[in-house]
Structure formats: C-alpha cells, structure tokens
Amino acid sequence: MAVPGNPVDEIVSRIRHASKRVTVAKRTVAQVLADAPGHLSADAITCAVQELEPDVSPSTIYRILEEFEDLGIIVHAHLGQGAAVFHLAGTIHGHLTCETCKQTIEIPSSHFDDLSRDLQSSFGFELDLHHVALSGTCARCLEVRSQSHA
User: Fold this and answer.
1) Which of 68, 93, 99, 122 is the Cys-Cys partner for 73 at CB 3.0 to 4.6 Å?
2) 3-state class of 35 per DSSP?
3) Where are the domains of the chain?
4) Cα 44 to Cα 86: distance, rounded to the nearest angstrom
C-alpha cells in the first residue's frame, strides 16, 4: 500500500498496478526523480542512480525512463537546444527557457489556453501541454542587457 504523499511509494504502487516488476533499479530511479529539485536529463539521472547503485547500467536506466513515461509516471520536455529533461508527472505546466543564462521557468499551462484553442480551430492541431517550451530572454538578462546598452 502506497503511503499518501510519498512519491516513491506512489511510483512503486503504479508499477505494481501495471503488473510490472519492481526492482532496485526502478526504486532508485524513482528516488532520484522524487528528490530532484527540478528537471533532469537522462545523463544526470544516470549519474545520480549510479552514485546510489553503481551496478545499474545506463541502458537499464534508459529502459526504466521509457517504462515510467509509458506508465504516465514521468514526462519529458525539450528545453532549448539541450537534451530532453524528465520530471515526475503532475500538474501540467509549460517552460520558458532563457537563451542567455539557461534558466528554465515553469509556468501554469493556462498561459497556453488561448494558443491551444487557436491551434485547434485554425489547424486542427492539439497542443501537448506537457512538452511546451518557449525560448527567449528572462527579465534579469533583459535588465542586464538594457543596463549595458545605457
């Protein structure tokens, strides 16, 4: 039985509910994702898992990430030019990535409601809000730029 509010126990419960095996490697990936302060690349997840369980191979970790995504446990996003990043599924949100300082800001998906409706009506296109990432320049970098041009 999953403990309410414990993300690792909730993930393990979802794995079992899908009739999949729960392994040390899966628990460790779940723990790394639950402990992450934000989004992690597959390489960062691999490094963190191998710090805890050195015998877990990168290919096993990649397969676990695919399984977790198939089960709706995690989602990935492409932020700027870097590798895809992963985070636990939950509240749907978009991403704003600063091209100058590389900071990523999570924003509520409601900011994309009008765009989503317009894309649907104009093009019959359904926007995947889990993967919305916009590139630009954050307020701090704009301020620095304006001060340097003054």
Assistant:
1) 68
2) helix
3) 7-88, 93-148
4) 10
Residue with tokens 């749907």: 92
Token pair for 108: 């509520």
- Cβ(85)–Cβ(77) under 8 Å? yes
Which DSSP helix (H) or strand (E) runs through 105?
strand 104-108
Chain centroid to CA 142: how far? 26
How do residues 103-148 score in pLDDT, each as one tens digit? 888 888 889 889 999 999 999 999 887 777 888 999 999 999 888 8
Q: Please tell me the CATH code under which domain 7-88 is placed.
A: 1.10.10.10
- Overall pTM > 0.85: no
Give burial (CB, 10 Å; 0-12/13-18/19+) of 54: exposed
> Is 93-148 a CATH 3.60.40.10 domain?
no
Task: Quote the tokens at residue 132.
Answer: 């919305």
DSSP letter assigned to residue 107: E
What span, in angstroms and rounded, lies between the C-alpha atoms of 75 and 73?
7
Q: How far is CA 121 from CA 27, 93, 95, 112, in A?
A: 43, 22, 23, 14
pLDDT tens figures, 44-72: 999 999 999 999 999 999 999 999 999 99
